[in-house]
Amino acid sequence: MSATFQHTAEYARRMDEQDPLRAFRDEFLFPQHDGRPAIYFTGNSLGLQPKAAAAALKQELDDWAAFGVEGHFQAKHPWYSYHEELTAGTARLVGALPEEVVVMNQLTSNLHFLLVSFYRPAGKRVKILCEQRPFPSDTYALASQIRFHGLDPKDALVEMTPRAGEHTLRTTDILDRIAELDDTLALVLFGGVNFYTGQAFDMRRITEEAHRVGALAGYDLAHAAGNLHLQLHAWEADFACWCSYKYLNSGPGGVAGAFVHQRHLKADLPRFAGWWGHDKATRFRMAPEFSPMPTAEGWQVSNAPVLPMAVHRVALEQFDRAGIERLRAKSEQLTAYLEATVRHVGAKHDVRLEVITPSDTAQRGCQLSILAHGMGRGLFDQLTARGVFVDWREPNVIRMAPVPLYNSFEDVFRCGEILSACVALNVGMNA
User: Fold this and answer.
1) In a domain, 47, yes or no
2) Which pLDDT score is estimated for 331?
3) Domain stops at, among 306, 322, 338
4) Taking burial as the number of CB atoms within 10 A of a residue's CB, which of 295, 365, 366, 371 is the most buried?
């Protein structure tokens, strides 16, 4: 792969000049290091702040000051229906119908609310299949839902592990495991992209196989929304949820999203109800009987958190202008350049920098997970000290995510130069 690219500043700048999305970089605020923008490769943990976020927040604060409670109807973006302004952009982002999505709550809260409806163990169909080591919050949520139904997670939660000597799961192995579990399987719940390895799963094929055996399929898209070109409706996923503070750049603890496939919207499903999920035409009659909206909004329990949604509205507008197809095309090229750069540095210094994320672009987003054998945490600390924002995940992975909306090819080149200097330092120390 490295032969495809040139590891020079001139090449990187030339690639940036040809990038049709290059102007978006100027719409973000970068942490500074030694008087210049840091190399920020941690959008998979917290996205950068859009410059327009401050004005969006100020608009709501000004409307609050001017109108008080009447801001629910008189604000520039009326608070009563604020979440509705986010629906169309969200649907485009995840490949859904507008009626299938809603922006609400936080990620794990949404996962719990959806599991109430879509994990319904009965008879011997009680098992949930997931990947080994999903994000810990998912494990906690799944185990607690299983216990809520009076079952034991040791029996009902099935975690898939890679083959011996491998770091990621093979799609064929996932499909075979679903077929093997057959009528004992109630739900398949995978991350769209695994937070640790960066592997993107084939959600279409996983969903098809789950449905074939009579199970449902849901996804935690924390690392997939804004990263992959999702087609949730076409893939016929039953449900999904995601956060907005990673690739969606909507601020720490930003409001989350949820998807419920159209075929479930009018079904008589159990749910934990709240007044904002009630039919909005009669919501303020305060009737004792719950009448859910016939859309994904029916899973809402509380009114909109307007201040986080103000930032999220800015972020969704940026994605609409950029287009997820164009972002994905740049991401594939930018991430391939980073992978080639990491391998180039490893070969130059004769050290093992093992990229455990699949090289196949269909099986990854923009995150690369790297095992720096013999260097590990020390190498991470050295990169951080030199203004390279990457992150460390126990026990031994450095994660790097060149985000196409604001990262550049020159960022990748500069990262490679700093990585090379840090590796050389480690080699010298161990000589």
Assistant:
1) no
2) 98
3) 322
4) 366
Angle, helix 87-94 to helix 306-322, in steps of 10 degrees: 50
Helix (H) or strand (E) holding 190: strand 185-191
Residues in the chain with pLDDT < 50?
1-3
Share of the chain above pLDDT 70, in %: 98
Which amino acid does the sequence have at 393? R
E strand spans, 235-384: 239-242, 257-260, 353-355, 368-372
**What stretches of 153-274 adopt beta strand conformation (E)?**
157-160, 185-191, 216-220, 239-242, 257-260
Q: By residue range, what is the domain housing residue 102?
A: 56-322
The pair of three-digit structure tokens given for residue 270, joined into one six-digit string: 């159990």
Instruction: Say if residue 78 is preceded by a cis peptide, omega within 30 of 0.
Output: no
In this structure, the answer to whether residues 64 and 174 fall within a common structural domain is yes
> How far, in Å, CA of 316 to CA of 77, rounded?
15
Q: What is the pLDDT of residue 3?
A: 46
pLDDT, residue 429, reads 65
Say how far apart CA 309 and CA 77 lie, in whole Å: 11
**Residue 237 tokens, joined:** 């996923």
Record the pTM. Answer: 0.96
Pair 309, 387 in one domain: no
Could you tell me the CATH number of the domain that includes residue 402?
3.90.1150.10
Tell me the one-letter amino acid at 275.
W
The last residue of one of the domains, among 293, 322, 351, is 322
pLDDT digits (tens, 9 = 90+) for 372-430: 888 888 999 999 999 999 999 988 899 999 999 999 999 999 999 999 999 998 876 66
Dihedral angle computed from the Cα positions of residues 404, 418, 38 and 23, in that order, rounded to the nearest 10 degrees: -30
DSSP code for 30? P
Contact status, residue 318 vs residue 50, Cβ threshold 8 Å? yes
pLDDT digits (tens, 9 = 90+) for 181-190: 999 999 999 9
Task: Output the domain CATH number for residue 282.
Answer: 3.40.640.10
In this structure, the chain runs to a length of: 431
State the pLDDT at residue 72.
96
β pairing state of 49-50 and 101-103 = unpaired
